[in-house]
Amino acid sequence: MISMKKLFFIxxxxxxxxxxxxxAQEIGGVSATASPVANSSGSVxxxxxxxxxxxxxxxxxxxxxxxQGPTLNVTxxxxxxxxxxxxxxxxxxxxxxxxxxxxxxxxxxxKPIGDGILDNPGDIIFFKRTRTGQxxxxxxxxxxxATLSRPIDQKLQDQCKEAAATQISFQKQVTANKRLDFExxxxxxxxxxxxxxxxxxxKSPYYKVCADVxxxxxxxxxxxxxxxxxxxxxxxxxxxxSAADLGxxxxxxxxxxxx
Length: 259
Fold this sequence. Notes:
By secondary structure, this protein is of the alpha+beta class. The protein is built from two helices and ten strands, in the order αββββββββββα. Among the domains are: 84 residues, no CATH class; 51 residues, no CATH class. It has a two-stranded antiparallel ribbon. Strands 3-4 form a two-stranded antiparallel sheet. The protein is rod-shaped, with a radius of gyration of 62 Å.
């Protein structure tokens, strides 16, 4: 009894050992077997625009405080391509061959007929002007690409802005203190020099350094300066009634003129 597995191999064996039969027609010793050939050609150009995202804009306020804000990147671009074939030929002459077959055999009446072989193989009857379809291709593209980057954590952004504002206020106060120290030192030095009678010439470019310093009491008396005068007692008369009130009698000395 033949198993089912062996029955499946019989068709494969028959197909392996069966010779293949090909039919071909020959015309004048030249094989006329159809042998179609398909050729396809083309070109593909891929163009891409690459958008590079830059780093976040970072602001530095001193003291190690750095804040990053939103960043907008705008990239304009221009792309173009030109394709052409050289030499440029809009038309070409397509040869038309003589395919007549009128001789080579005879019919029953003895008239010549074709025998399946071209009477004038390879002969060109005329040239047909054919359009090539060749053309140049031009492509120009204009555009703008943009990307917007924004930090997600808004709380950190607010804290960074608050720290930046504090740092700016601190720097302003330090600058004000330095300015005050400079002005006081200038006032002190200019005042001491003016008390000693030392100052720049009015035509000197450094005269304006101490021009606004005013010394109101060069002698050393601290203004305002007042003296108290005691008032007389109420029992003393203010009007002299006799010469004795004026003190000792006056003595007149004679003066001898000098020779």
